[in-house]
Amino acid sequence: VQLVESGGGLVHPGGSLRLSCVASGFTLEHYAIAWFRQAPGKEREGVSYMKSRDGFTYYADSVKGRFTASRDSAQNAVYLEMNSLKPEDTAVYYCAADLRDGLVFLSEYDYWGQGAQVTVSS
């Protein structure tokens, strides 16, 4: 049972990246999904949250209008599309999954991805 992330990398300011988070051993569509990030020397912060049942998605103010979370049940995966990237978006990004709706940006998720480094720099 695991979440495997991919898609991080180095991008110029204003560029785009898409992070993928693929589940194995469980069916992701039944789970609430959150994306977090942690920059060097800073606390982990929530980026987006998607409920399992109705697809309601919430974004932190810092990424609203630039980031889009989605899920693909056929691929058993979730994605974070990141556009108009800024240097302050540089961080390690984590996906997290839990059967309970409502955790939002609390840390008590059952499953975590291994993290994907996103670096925004000219």
Can you walk through the features of this model?
This protein has strands at 2-6, 9-11, 17-24, 32-38, 45-50, 57-59, 67-72, 77-82, 91-98, 111-112, 116-120. It has 122 residues and is an all-beta fold. The strands form 2 sheets. Strands 2, 4, 5, 6, 9, 10 and 11 form a 7-stranded mixed β-sheet that branches. The protein starts with a strand and ends with a strand. 32% of the residues are buried. The mean pLDDT is 95.
Q: TL;DR of this structure?
A:
The protein has 122 residues and is mostly beta strands. The chain is 0% helix and 48% strand. The protein starts with a strand and ends with a strand.
Please tag this protein with its features.
122 residues, mainly beta, four-stranded antiparallel sheet, 11 strands, 0% helix, 48% strand, globular
The separation of the N and C termini measures 38 Å
SSE class: mainly beta
Biggest beta-sheet profile: 7 strands, mixed
- Uncertain segments of ≥5 residues (pLDDT<50)? none
The H-and-E topology, N to C, reads as EEEEEEEEEEE
Our count of helices gives: 0
Strand content of the residues, in percent? over 45%
Q: What global shape is seen?
A: globular
Rg (CA only):
13 Å
| Amount of helix | under 10%
What is the number of strand segments? 11
Return the average pLDDT rounded to an integer: 95
Secondary structure layout plus pairing:
Layout (H helix, E strand, L loop, with lengths): L1 E5 L2 E3 L5 E8 L7 E7 L6 E6 L6 E3 L7 E6 L4 E6 L8 E8 L12 E2 L3 E5 L2
Parallel strand pairs: 2-11
Antiparallel strand pairs: 1-3, 3-8, 4-5, 4-9, 5-6, 7-8, 9-10, 9-11
